[in-house]
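So, read this over?
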Amino acid sequence: MSEFIAPVAAWCAAIIEAIGIGAITLFALYALFNAAARMIKKDDNESIFQELRQLLGRGILVGLEFLIASDIIYTVAVELTFQSIGVLAIVVLIRTFLSLTLEVEMSGKWPWQNNQ
């Protein structure tokens, strides 16, 4: 059974990883085009910058979630060793820290704080 699951899991992990990369890229391009369009309309530079940061942050967060899912699938289903689990733990820790700091940067508060 493992001979069948490992290649399928590897393909699934690769597809999910590509989705994560695509999400980050598409959000970045959208954010840049949106900012350029607003600059042409002569909108306020500060609001353009803030919206650009928000869109980029959201794109990175979405992409990171897909990349974490991809790493988990690949490690658990394809390459299950103590070394790969250790690397996965470090990668997930770093990406989770990045996600948390991006969320705080975008919202200005910790995720567990009330919306007040």
Observations:
- The CA atoms of residues 64 and 96 lie 8 Å apart.
- The chain has a mean pLDDT of 87.
- The chain has three helices and no strands.
- The radius of gyration is 18 Å.
